[in-house]
Amino acid sequence: MENFTFYNPTKIIFGRNTQHEVGQEIIKYGKKVLLHYGGGSIKKSGLYDEVMTSLKNSNLEVYELGGVVPNPLLSLVNEGINLCLEKQIDFILAVGGGSVIDSAKAIAGGVKYEGDIWDCYSKGVTLSDALPYGTILTLPATGTEMNFRSVITKDDTLEKRGASFPNPTFSILNAELCATLPNYQVANGIVDMLAHLFERYFTNTKNVDITDRQIEAVMKSIIELGVDVYQDPSDYDKYAQIMWAGTIAHNYSLCVGRETDWATHQIEHELSGMYNVAHGAGLAVLFPNWMKYVYHHDLDRFVQFATRVMNVEPDFFNPEKTALKGIEAVITFYKKLNMPLTLKALGIDEKRIDELALLSTRNNTIKQGNFVKLDTEDIKQILLLSCAGD
Amino acid sequence: MENFTFYNPTKIIFGRNTQHEVGQEIIKYGKKVLLHYGGGSIKKSGLYDEVMTSLKNSNLEVYELGGVVPNPLLSLVNEGINLCLEKQIDFILAVGGGSVIDSAKAIAGGVKYEGDIWDCYSKGVTLSDALPYGTILTLPATGTEMNFRSVITKDDTLEKRGASFPNPTFSILNAELCATLPNYQVANGIVDMLAHLFERYFTNTKNVDITDRQIEAVMKSIIELGVDVYQDPSDYDKYAQIMWAGTIAHNYSLCVGRETDWATHQIEHELSGMYNVAHGAGLAVLFPNWMKYVYHHDLDRFVQFATRVMNVEPDFFNPEKTALKGIEAVITFYKKLNMPLTLKALGIDEKRIDELALLSTRNNTIKQGNFVKLDTEDIKQILLLSCAGD
C-alpha cells in the first residue's frame, strides 16, 4: 500500500425528489446563479421547470447558458467564463451528464484564473480556487459529480484533454431523473463506470487486498444490476444503486494507496476525438482487448478477477483458462448491453490504426498505462485485436 | 435504498512518515495550537518529539493539555475549552487514540458554543461551528478520525453519551506508529471496527446490495488480516490495511441509504460505563449473543453473512445451520484475538444483569436498535446468553 492523500469535500444529496432542494443549497453561496445545461432535454423532461421553481423560491437571480455538447467544447467554456465575469455570478449550477458538469468545472476555474483556461488542460496548470458550483446529475457514468477532473475538447484542433479543479460543492443524485434515458445512453454509462474500476483494479501495487475487495464489491454490483437497469431505467431501486456505483467508482476512494492504469481511457480519448464515438462504446471495444494483451503480466490478478468478480469457477490446473474465461465473461456482459465489440462496429476504418496508435503515444514520445506501459506498437496490437471478434 | 446526505470533508494524509507533515498542515489555520494527548505514551514512543519538531519548524506557538483517559472525561474537556479561550488557540491537534480525538472534538465544539458543552451530549444540541482541529491517530479502532461523532463520560454520574460535531480538518494515519501497541489494544481495536460494520450490515432496508457487498469487502479484509496484525503489529503492510479499514468502517460511506442498528453499542456503553471494561472486549462478549438472539428476524441475511464473509459453505437444506456456523465463526475469530467471550471473563457479576438491562433502555423508556427493536427483557436475554459459553 502506497502513501496517499484523500480529500473529497463534495456534499452528496441522494434520492427521490432531491432536485427540489437545489435552491436552498445554492443560496448559502450568493444570489446570482448561472444555470448550465446541454441540448434542452431537461426542458422536455420537466426538470428545467422544477429547478427554476426551486431557484426562484430561494429568490436567486438566474442566468442561463445551455448548449453543452457531448465532448464539451472550449469555446462554450470561454463564453461561460465571460458571462460569469460580466454578470458577477456567485454560483454555477450544472444540470446534466458528465459533459455539462465538466464544462461547468472549467468555467468555475476560469472565472478565478487570470490566464487562458486551456492552460489547465494543455500545460497541467492546477487551480486551487474556483467559483463554487454544484450539479444535478441526469446521466450516471463519468463520476465527475464527486471528483476534481474535467475533460474538454478544443474546437479547432479537436484535442481532448483532462485537467483538475476543486470538487463540486454539492451534487444532487436522483435516479428518478434517469428513468426516461435512452437505453443506449444507460449502457454507455454502465460501461464507463465499470471501466473506471478496471483502471483501478489492474495494478502492480502489493498489499492492497482491502481495496481489491472494495473494487470487486462495486464491480460485482454493476454486473449484477447493470443489465436490468439497461433494459428498464425506470427501475428506481436498481438504478439508484448503479447511480451510486458510478459515483464511487471514480470519487478516488477506491484507489487510495494503489497505482492505477488509464491506458485504455487514453486510447479511447483519441478514438472518440477522431471519430466522435460514445466514450462507453469505445471502452467496450477496447477493454477486453487490452485485457487479452496484458493478462500474462499478472495472471494471478486476472484469475482473481475472473473468480471473484465474473463468477468463473477457477481451474486450478489451468489458471490461464480461468483468466480468459473472465475476459470472455466481460464480453458477454457487454453483449447483453448491446455494446459494439469491434472497431468496425464503431464505424472505424482499420487503415487508421497506425495513426491512432501514434496519436495515443503523442508520436512515440510517451507510453500509456502503468499496469503495463504501452508503446505505439503495443497499442497497435491492441487495436488490431479490436478489429477481430464477432 | 433510502434517501441520504453524505458529506465528509476530512483530509486524510496516510502512510509512512506522514506525522512529519503536521506542522505544515496546521499553519494554514493559524499560529497557536493546543496539543492534546493522553497518558504520555507518545512521549515514550518518540512521537511527541517528532510532532513538536514539526510544529516548531512551522513556527507554531504550542500549548499542551495531556491526561486524556480511556472513556474521556467532561472535566478535562472543560479545562481544554477554558485553556483555548484564555490563550486564543487557533487549532487543536489531537495525538492519540479515539479517546483523545473525541475529547478534542468536544473542546473544539465547546470553544464556539455559548452554553455548557454537555448540552450536546445530554440534550442532542448539534453545533455547526467548531475550532478547526486535526488528528494523528495512534490506535486504529473507533473511526472518529474521519467522522463527526464524539463520546464523552460525565465525571460525577459516569453517564457516557455521544454527540455530533464538525469533522476533523485532517487526520494523519501512519501504521508505523502502531508497531509497538500492546497486542490486547490492537485486538480491542479490531473488534471495535468490525462491530461498526456489523451495526451497518444488519439492516431492514431493501435494495442495498451494493453497500452489502462493500461492507462485506471490508469485514472480509479485517477477518483475513486481523489475527496477523494482532500477533505482529509491526507488520506495516497488513496494519496499514487494517488501519484504513477502521477508518472507512465508521466514516459513514458504508451506511449510505440504509438503516443501521447500534443496539449492541448502546448496551456495551452501559457496560463499560458501569465496569470500565475495554469497549472492544465488551463488544466481543455481546455481539455473538446479539446475533444468536436476533438471527431469526432475517435468516437470509445471516446466511448471506455466513457464506460471503465467514466462508461458511451454505447448507441449502438447512439455512439455520448455515447462519449459526457464521456466528460460531465470529466467535472463533474473537478467540484467535484472545478476546473475552463471557460477562464472567470480563469480571461482571451476573446479578447485575437486570440493572444493566434497565440502564440500557433508560428504565424502560426507550428500545434499542433498529434491525430488531429490543426492550429491557430482550436485552436481559442477550445478557443471559452472554453469561454462558466457554
Describe this structure in words.
Chain A is an alpha/beta fold and 390 residues long. Chain A has two domains: 11-177, Rossmann fold, CATH 3.40.50; 182-385, Dehydroquinate synthase-like, alpha domain. The first copy, chain A, is built from 15 helices and eight strands. The first copy, chain A, has helices at residues 22-26, 41-45, 47-57, 74-87, 98-112, 118-122, 183-201, 209-231, 236-248, 263-275, 279-294, 299-308, 319-336, 353-360, 376-385; strands at 4-14, 32-36, 61-65, 91-96, 133-137, 149-153, 160-164, 170-173. In chain A, the strands form two sheets. Chain A has a six-stranded parallel sheet, sandwiched between helices. In chain A, strand 6 (149-153) and strand 7 form a beta hairpin. In chain A, helix 14 (353-360) crosses helix 15 (376-385). The longest helix of chain A has 23 residues, at 209-231. Chain A is globular. The model of chain A has no long low-confidence stretch (mean pLDDT 96). Chains A and B meet through strand 1, helix 8 and helix 9 of A and strand 1, helix 8 and helix 9 of B. Strand 1 (4-14) of chain A pairs antiparallel with strand 1 of chain B.
Distinct helical segment count of chain A = 15
* CATH-derived architecture of the largest domain in chain A: Up-down Bundle
- Shape label of chain A: globular
What summary fits the major beta sheet of chain A?
Answer: 6 strands, parallel
Quaternary organization: homodimer
**Residue share in helix of chain A:** 40-55%
- N-to-C span of chain A: 40 Å
Helix/strand structural class of chain A? alpha/beta
**Major sheet of chain A: order of its strands?**
1-8-5-4-2-3
Number of strands of chain A: 8
Low-confidence stretches of chain A: none
